[in-house]
Amino acid sequence: MNATAAAFKGNADIGRLLDDGPYTTMQKLVVFLAALSIVMDGFDGQLIGFAIPSMIKEWGITREAFVPAVAAGLIGMGIGSACAGLFADRFGRRMAVIASVFLFGAATCAIGLAPDVLSVAVLRFIAGLGIGGALPSSTTVTAEFTPARRRTLAVTATIVCVPLGGMLAGLFAAQVLPAFGWRALFFIGGTFPMALAVLLFFSLPESPRFLARHPARWGELGRLLARMGRPMARDVRYTDAAEQAAEKNAEKSAGFGALFSNGLARDTLATWAAFFMCLTAVYSAFSWLPTMLASEGLSMSVAGSGLTAYNLGGVIGALGCAVAISRFGSRWPLVLCCAGAAASAFALQTLNVGKETSLLIFGFGVHGMFVNAVQSTMYALCAFMYPTSVRATGTASALAFGRLGAILSAFAGAAVITAGGATAYLALLGSAMFLAMVALLIVRRHIPGRDVLLQRGRGQSLPGVSPPQGISRKRSS
To answer: What does pTM read for this prediction?
Structure first.
């Protein structure tokens, strides 16, 4: 009898079972479903950026008239992000993901019926609640189904599905807008996530860590673990030693004030600034890039291809930066990507927008590669920077400040395009990323490189269960 079999009559530490156990096909399928939710999140979230030029033309209004609609969606995202954690902790991660996906799909569909900008603003706010809630809920599912050794890359790969969804939205809009108009763009675009929500309802399981905290659902947890290649007896009692220890520490050090104690104040403020500036740049592109290009006299299809290239570059950049961080640590990969984002934006100012279209689109792809490399991996930086007792608070606060930058982009993007066209718009993108670079240079607690992590990880034991009293942890015959 081996140690795991003997432990069937004792206590099972769910954290060790998940972190030190195999990464099964079933777990990978769950991560795929969570990632697919984020693809739809990015897809529906960016449809408005492709549709605005057509809506302006049809209704005969100005860019400034659309600022409330853009801002309402971003405000909804901020509220959705803040409330998603509370919903997920009370009702489960599964329902948080399903509800978020269905909500933004239904609201996006309804935009196709909107008679005016005010209606679009209200519906974008509702869609924003779901779009904002889907990202933290889905990344939590990914984190809680993935072993610790794969978690950083898995979470980054999930987050990078936002620009992947935006890229698909660009390809979709290029086909639908000329043939069927902007209303069909929202009708069809909203149907996809609603269908996905039905699929998730029947196929997405609840998080094992959530189930472990509810003894009444331990039977469901046992069946789930069996599907994950970890069969357990019915009488096993489940614990989560790491979380329980964190909760004891949280009684002493949790709370918003803890983000500014024990030498964290400098890193907290610098990280907030980095999120703020980076999301200002990201959502200035998501919301206004096609509109800016159209204002420079480019066709709708070419204007849309600029944002598609931006998102395609973002997918490549985020995955590449995640690999670089796992090898070299976070400081220099993030700083160099910020520098590349700023330099590429300023370099684009030298192009003739009307004559050098291909080079312009390629340049936006390069810019998007650097910007999204920074944005997608800063979540991992927050997870490393803060101790367990304040990790969720630290990450949520940084994202909240980032959302303020996103809301600012709704006003700043329209204002700079009206005031200075492409030159002023590119100056906004470049300046925001330069300031993000300065903020990340100020941060002291960066993720260390692979060599340091390997040294820290030596000597860790692997068993995922604790045997009953009298049974040794050593392997027995």
So the answer is: 0.79
